[in-house]
Amino acid sequence: MSQTHVDVFAKARGHDREEQLRAAREADVLPYFRILDGPARPVVEMEGAERIMLGSNNYLGLTADERVVQGAHDALMRYGTGLTGSRLLNGTIPLHLDLEREIAEWMGADDALVFTTGHQANLGTLGTILGPGDTVIVDSGDHASILDGCLLSRAKLRPFRHNRLEKLEKSLVRAQTDGGGVLVVVDGVFSMEGDIAPLHEIADLCARYGARLMVDEAHGAGVLGRRGAGTAELLGVEGRVDLRVGTFSKSLAACGGFVAGDADVIDYLRVQSRAYLFTASGVPAAVGAALAALRVLRSDEGHDLLAAVLDNARYLRDGLEGLGFAVVQAQHLDSSAQLDAPGVLDGTIVTPIVPILVGDDWRAVLLWRALYDAGVFVNTALHPAVPPGGALLRTSVMATHDRATIDRALEAFAMVKRSFEADHGPLPGPGELHAPAARAAE
Ligand SMILES: Cc1ncc(COP(=O)(O)O)c(C=O)c1O
User: Fold this and answer.
1) CB distance 247 to ligand 1 below 6 Å
2) pLDDT in tens, 266-297
3) Structural domains of the chain ordered from first start
4) Whose Cα sits closest to atom 8 in ligand 1?
5) Residue 352, preceding bond cis, omega within 30 degrees?
6) SS3 for 351?
């Protein structure tokens, strides 16, 4: 009897995005894998031209800060280029321990564990603390690494629609009869939409149904709250969040990740987490840079850096709305939040992620290219990173952008919008990108 073999490589040919990808490459409008020719500064050298960088997560602008560069340099010179082993065996240097201690202090937690990337921090935490008998409830806007960690754990996955608290509650009710432990996991600041999770209400629901709460502070830590400890700090719920995960690849200007929480849980992860144990530890230069950046953030200068990035975000958001773009709205905070924290104005906050709704994927790509040609680099979020028909240009600012540079970017946006709309019809306008609160009430 003849047997037909399925080629596992078949999916690499003829996948549903292949045609679109080929057309985008041929027209040279692909917004991905563009090449940076220098450090991630407010204005960068990219593919032979200067572009205003509105697509970096270098929120505090510390990747080129001389103290942070020195931290990387000193670590490199003292410990070499790589550690060639796991933290468990030959991969721990004093800088890892200093960083873990200082992160725990910063987060107000018992202990912290440093991973080689933020992705591994989620994978190694969720894949270890959850097991097949447990239930994990996630927001549909959560980062891919959260989903990967959940899948790895083989816990029962119950997703709820972005920010829909009544759906979260339904999942919590259902989870009561699943039979295992229950963990709710949300991003503090959602990486595509730039909105903040309503952690106060989420913590209330977790307490009511006996669930644990984990918050991914990748875009919140080093950005929000008086200490810059993140969304949980800004919203006044630090004591009610069980685990906080973060990354060094954004405000902390390096590469790596962490989880902070109770001593027993962190110690359990230290000896059980496969994404921590079975990979080489972060290279000395990355650890030295993250430690130096954290020290800058926690120094007297930190407040001004946080205020600068958040004020820049509000300025860019207001400017884009003034030009008629559909941008994210400033988010209202309730009275339990730190209303005197950097960036809070009249009880509202704008995070450094300011998305612009375009809608159609192809139009978003063409608009991206027009901006690129006009000297502005932004990120493009297409389906499946966003819901179908919800393509975004995702802009993000740094503390080190000055107003003149943001004004130049706004002039480019104005010019590009005029010619784009003349050729391709109107773009969505102000109010069309629903405020998170409005969407939550839908
Ligand atoms: C919300 C969120 N979590 C986790 C990660 C992963 O972090 P890293 O880039 O350090 O792997 C990212 C970064 O892309 C993120 O945006």
Assistant:
1) yes
2) 999 999 999 999 999 999 999 999 999 999 99
3) 19-54+301-441 (3.90.1150.10), 64-298 (3.40.640.10)
4) 118
5) no
6) coil
